[in-house]
Each structure stands twice: as structure tokens, then as C-alpha cells.
User: Fold ER lumen protein-retaining receptor from Knipowitschia caucasica.
Amino acid sequence: MNIFRLSGDLSHLAAIIILLLKIWKTRSCAGISGKSQLLFALVFTTRYLDLLTAFISLYNTTMKMIYIGCAYATVYLIYAKFKATYDGNHDTFRVEFLVVPVGGLSFLVNHDFSPLEILWTFSIYLESVAILPQLFMISKTGEAETITTHYLFFLGLYRALYLINWIWRFYFEGFFDMIAIVAGVVQTILYCDFFYLYVTKVLKGKKLSLPA
Assistant:
């Protein structure tokens, strides 16, 4: 494992922990898109089904279980424990417009037409757009809490580091996965505008605001 993938994994883990701590400490999920979190839970569930069929390493298994566990814990906090604070009126993105096309594409473009491979491909495609309900929610409310922007920053950083990881692996290992790379590029592009606002506003102590 190279430093870029490890850094990407740690950034991903940091994003998840930041979100969970934010919800738990404030006893509120205000400003958090439950739909995005449901999509991420679906991403991890369909991607890590290989936990049932293969063992790669203790690190690999542990990280996968943490991602799955934290994803469902977040969904539970939003839709059950702190449901009264969930802002469903602004979390209105039509997720079927993401899930259905992604599902169809995973059947058409994959590495191998087998159940596990199709589900893995589905998870890769879905992850690239799973943050859209959250970004859409921020655009509707017009602003985001600082802690929420930190979560989004580390989530975007994770994907950017994975892009560098793929470039590294191509040059030094001869590994090339077009599906993962294209999906990663799409996901990183979605974060570009947010990254700019994060650097120019949040890091300077200003609140991130968007035109509603």
C-alpha cells in the first residue's frame, strides 16, 4: 500500500468520524442530508460483500467493517435517534435519478458480468454522485455549518488522494482500472467548487454561504 492510498483511507475515516461526532455532540443532524448518508450506506454494503467470500488482510477487513458500521450508525442517528432535528424539507433531491441510471450502467459497463462484480461496479458509480443530495441541500439552505464543511472537505480529499494513488499504481505497478478512475474523476469534479469556497472562506474563519 502506498502513502496516497493510506492517506486517502485516513481522510475518509476522518470525514466519517467528524460527521458522527458532529451529530452526537450537538444531538442534532440539522444540515446533514439523510439521503446522501443512505446512498453511502448502500455504497459500502454493495462494495464490501467480498467480506463474505475472501480475506485480503486484517487492515482491509477492519476498514471495511468500520465504514459499513459507521454508515449505518449515521443513518440510524439521522432517521431514528435524532429524527426530530432532521431537515427533510430541504433534503429533497430525487435519489432515484441517481440510483436507477447507475444501476443500469453497472449492468452495461463492468469488468465481469457476475453478481459481485456488478454490485462492486454499482458501488463505484454510485459513490461518485452520492454527495449530490448533500450539495443540493446546501444550495437550497444557502449555507453550511463549519463542521459540515470540514466533513465535506475530508470526503473530497479522500477521493482526490485516491486519484493520485491510481496514477502512482499505473506508473509503478502497471495497474489501471478505467471504471474506478473515471468515477473518481467525476466525484472530484463535483467537489471542485466546494474546495474553492472552503479554502477562500472556511479556512479564513468565514461561514460558507451559497446562493439559494
Summary: The first helix runs from residue 3 to 26. The CA atoms of residues 139 and 212 lie 5 Å apart. The chain has a mean pLDDT of 90. The first strand starts at residue 143 and ends at 144.
